[in-house]
Amino acid sequence: MAEARARSQFPDHLAGELEALGQDLLVGGKAATAMVGACRATWRRASVGRFPFIFAAVLLARRGRAKEASALLEHAAGNTFAGVLRRYLVKTGRLGVPSRRRDSADTLNVWTSTALSEKEMVATVRAFTGLLSGADASPVGSVPAILDIGTGNGILICRFINRLISAYRLKDLHLILLDRSEAMLREALLNCQRLVRLRLRVSTIHCPIESLSERQIVRLGKENLWFATAASCLHHLPRDLKVTTLATVRRLASLVLLEELEGNHDLPDRDSLELVWSVQRFYGALIRSVLRTNVSQAQQEGCIDQFLLAEAMRILTRAKSRRGDHHTSRGEWCSVAREAGFASVEGLATELGSHGPCCLTFRLRAEI
Ligand SMILES: C[S@@+](CC[C@H](N)C(=O)[O-])C[C@H]1O[C@@H](n2cnc3c(N)ncnc32)[C@H](O)[C@@H]1O
Fold first, then answer.
1. Ligand 1 center to residue 230 CA distance, Å?
2. Which tens digit of pLDDT belongs to each residue from 118-171?
3. Would you identify the CATH topology of the domain 126-262+328-365?
4. For ligand 1, atom 18, which residue shows the shortest CA distance?
5. Exposure string (b/e) for 78-110, b if CB count within 10 Å is 16 or more?
6. N or C end of the chain: smaller count of CB under 10 Å?
7. At what angle do helices 80-92 and 51-62 cross, to 10 degrees?
8. How far is CA 285 from CA 90, 132, 164, 280, in A?
9. Ligand 1 centre and the CA of 129: distance in Å?
10. Which of 102, 233, 326, when mutated, tests ligand 1's pocket best, judged by the most ligand atoms within 8 Å of its CB?
11. Which candidate, 85, 90, 91, places its Cα nearest to that of 287?
12. What is the DSSP letter of 224?
């Protein structure tokens, strides 16, 4: 785990050199062409690949110098993130968030067809199953309920439920799906009918988890909740909101299973080395996996531009509180959960290949 955390942070010994490179560009007003040699020298001496080009290009493009940025990125051939960023800068002429398309599950469906997403799902289902059995928390009553927060297309929760059927001799289940997207909830309902091998009552709640009304909280409080799950959802919230939202979830479910990919997109400042480093590693790995899927080029580009690159753009260009995606480290998730009032926080980390982000899973218990 220590290694996984280190990988999401920038190697300290290079910080001074690259910060000087950024200063030359922004304060010294050096032309991007003059930076090629400096970027190349740093990458040759250190094991950071083409990162110096990407860092310099992000700083330039953020200041409206997109043409110079894309020229610099030409020198970073072979780096997936650099290639995709360059294509995007040439197409749009700016570093910015693409305009929102209609609410749809299409881009998530492409993502869940990738090998990396499959590894993440397998790791999550396995970890959740182990964490739940270790909690010694059998369902109580004839129809236990599970609350799935940020259900997406529902495939993950369906697979998890199928694992629980024989282990807990389930006969009936009430599944409560919560998502801020109506299109996702529609897709998840179809997948529940298609994939779950159990008599299932399904309800949906269409709202952001952080905006549950007191009435909704009271209604959920009357459910016979066995536990709640939240996979790849709560990273959408900045730190303070993660804490208050998890505190609300704790009032509803004394046992919560949480999953997130590890990143370093919550605490670092905009334009910092740590932020750009983490974004290009994290989204580079996800984008590589999309480029290897067996779907059309238009679908790949739709998933990359509308989903993954859109997230990367929000992180790189917006002020901290408005990033919209705040993946963070294992240590941070533990301290967020403790601040939210969970008495016990147990975690597991699974490597998703040598270049993929680490899959973090946690069992949070309100009482020990
Ligand atoms: C990446 S998908 C994860 C889907 C599924 N849990 C999984 O792991 O495969 C994230 C989902 O969370 C939803 N979401 C994001 N922020 C949310 C929020 N604040 N409240 C509720 N849902 C949210 C999105 O609409 C999306 O469907």
1. 8
2. 999 999 999 999 999 999 888 888 899 999 999 999 999 999 999 999 999 999
3. Rossmann fold (3.40.50)
4. 208
5. ebbbbbbbbbbbeeeeebbbeeeeeeebbbbbb
6. C
7. 20
8. 22, 29, 31, 8
9. 20
10. 233
11. 85
12. -
Q: Are 314 and 341 in contact (CB under 8 A)?
A: no
**Cα separation of 76 and 39, whole Å?**
10
Q: How many helices (H) and strands (E) does the chain have?
A: 16, 7
- Beta pairing partners, 88: none
- Facing residues of 145 across strands? 174, 225
Domain with CATH 3.40.50.150 in the chain: 126-262+328-365
> How many whole angstroms separate alpha carbon 224 and alpha carbon 41?
61
**Tally of residues, the chain:** 368
- Structure tokens, 204: 């949906």
Location of structure tokens 């994290």 = 282
User: Which atom of ligand 1 is nearest the CA belonging to 148?
Assistant: 6
User: Is the CB of residue 110 below 6 angstroms from any atom belonging to ligand 1?
Assistant: no
Mean pLDDT across the stretch 51-69?
92
> Exposed, middle or buried, 70 (CB in 10 Å: 0-12/13-18/19+)?
buried
- Strand pairing class (255-261; 358-365): antiparallel
- Per the confidence metrics, is the pTM higher than 0.90? yes
Q: Which atom of ligand 1 is nearest to the CA of 150?
A: 12
DSSP E strands, 93-211: 145-149, 172-179, 199-206
Apex 277 CA angle, 117 and 262, nearest 5? 40
Q: Averaged over 201-217, what is the pLDDT?
A: 97
Question: In this structure, what DSSP letter does residue 321 have?
Answer: G
**Phi and psi of 153, rounded to 5°?**
-85, 5
